[in-house]
């Protein structure tokens, strides 16, 4: 146990996390590429036409994974922020910052693909209902986090301010997830549920899950790649950084 | 192959604009993100290298 603890904290040091992230990200990037190819093949060449929505439903293979990632990445940011507040590890704030742009991108993509799906199926790009509005708030939370942390010069203070926003804003995530249950909304309920299983055709479900895993791997690869730049920037005065770049 | 032709594939049963509009923007965002991240990484390396050169130049002056 004692050994394990020392190990974990050792990886929390930027000096050892930098090479680790450098070794790991290409694997996650490759995994993301393979999963995307498999998911796209299944989604476009195997999954059948939907009896209600025709071929228009195929937006689901990016819409649902992007929406899941938008919520998951925010929770991951809150998790790192929590670690930062509890253990005061330097890497926590860097990981929170490294995740934010990818999370913001997936939130935007969730809204964008949702609009393109809403137009043909609901007859409108946008409605101010609970699901869509809370997802838009999530986008503003990401933007707020990015603006806040880049406005504060001292990285430790930026981490604390941003970490607080990440933790408090995480309240919004369950609101998004359960919004379709709690309120009457135009948005359909969950097609996949932990308790009730899936209401979709098997191949459709598999294509969607493969794409979700692909986006997951992509996000990990991007966060690991981006954190390296943040480490270098923050630790540029350290001797080990000078040895790395020399 | 579930499609009768490539035309049918691209038309997506009349939903082509919506379906491909979604996938194109997803791909575009990812490409932009990767390009920006690479630029950021290179800028960080360059800044650290500049600092190193400054310091060694500073140390060299008597």
Note down, in words, how this protein is organized.
- The complex is a heterodimer of chains A (246) and B (62).
- Chain A is mostly helical and 246 residues long.
- Chain A has one domain.
- Chain A has nine helices and two strands, in the order H-H-H-H-H-H-H-E-E-H-H.
- Chain A has a two-stranded antiparallel sheet.
- In chain A, helix 3 runs parallel beside helix 8.
- The mean pLDDT of chain A is 90.
- Chain B has 62 residues and is an all-alpha fold.
- Chain B has a domain of 40 residues.
- Chain B is built from two helices and no strands.
- The radius of gyration of chain B is 25 Å and the shape is rod-shaped.
- In chain B, 15% of the residues are buried.
- The mean pLDDT of chain B is 89.
- At the A-B interface, helix 2, helix 3, helix 4, helix 8 and helix 9 of A face helix 2 of B.
* Domain unit count of chain A: 1
Helical fraction of chain B: over 70%
Note the beta-strand portion of chain B. under 5%
Q: Could you tell me the radius of gyration of chain A in angstroms?
A: 20 Å
- Separation of the first and last Cα atoms of chain B: 76 Å
| DSSP strand tally of chain B | 0
What about the largest sheet of chain A? 2 strands, antiparallel
Biggest interface, chains and residues, is: A-B, 40 and 32 residues
Distance between the termini of chain A: 38 Å
- Average per-residue pLDDT of chain B, rounded, comes to 89
Give structural attributes.
heterodimer, A: 246 residues, mainly alpha, two-stranded antiparallel sheet, 9 helices, 2 strands, 78% helix, globular, B: 62 residues, 2 helices, rod-shaped
What's the structural blueprint in terms of helices and strands?
The complex is a heterodimer of chains A (246) and B (62).
Chain A: H1 2-11, H2 14-46, H3 60-87, H4 90-122, H5 130-151, H6 155-169, H7 172-182, E1 192-193, E2 197-198, H8 202-234, H9 239-245
Antiparallel strand pairs in A: 1-2
Helix pairs in contact in A: 2-8, 3-4, 3-6, 3-8, 4-5, 4-6, 4-8, 5-6, 5-7
Chain B: H1 6-11, H2 16-60
């Amino acid at each position: 146990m004692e050994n394990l603890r020392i190990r974990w904290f050792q990886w929390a040091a930027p000096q050892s996390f930098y090479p680790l992230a450098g070794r790991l990200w290409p694997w996650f990037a490759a995994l993301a590429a393979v999963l995307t190819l498999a998911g796209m093949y299944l989604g476009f060449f195997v999954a059948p036409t939907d009896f209600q929505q025709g071929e228009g439903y195929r937006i689901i293979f990016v819409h649902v994974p992007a929406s899941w990632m938008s919520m998951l990445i925010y929770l991951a940011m809150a998790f790192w922020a929590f670690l930062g507040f509890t253990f005061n590890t330097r890497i926590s704030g860097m990981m929170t910052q490294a995740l934010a742009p990818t999370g913001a991108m997936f939130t935007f993509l969730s809204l964008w693909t949702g609009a393109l799906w809403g137009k043909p199926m609901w007859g409108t790009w946008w409605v101010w209902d609970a699901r869509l509005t809370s997802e838009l708030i999530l986008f503003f939370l990401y933007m707020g986090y990015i603006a806040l942390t880049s406005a504060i010069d001292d990285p430790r203070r930026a981490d604390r301010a941003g970490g607080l926003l990440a933790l408090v804003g995480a309240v919004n995530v369950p609101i998004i997830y359960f919004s379709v249950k709690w309120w009457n909304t135009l948005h359909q309920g969950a097609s996949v549920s932990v308790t009730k299983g899936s209401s979709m055709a098997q191949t459709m479900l598999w294509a969607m899950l493969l794409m979700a895993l692909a986006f997951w791997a992509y996000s990990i690869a991007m966060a690991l790649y981006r954190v390296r730049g943040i480490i270098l920037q923050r630790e540029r005065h350290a001797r080990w950084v000078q040895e790395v770049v020399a | 192959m579930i499609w009768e032709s490539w035309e049918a594939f691209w038309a997506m049963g009349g939903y082509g604009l919506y379906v491909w509009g979604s996938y194109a923007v997803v791909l575009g965002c990812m490409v932009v993100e990767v390009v920006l991240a690479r630029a950021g990484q290179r800028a960080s390396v360059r800044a650290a290298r500049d600092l190193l050169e400054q310091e060694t130049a500073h140390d060299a002056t008597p």
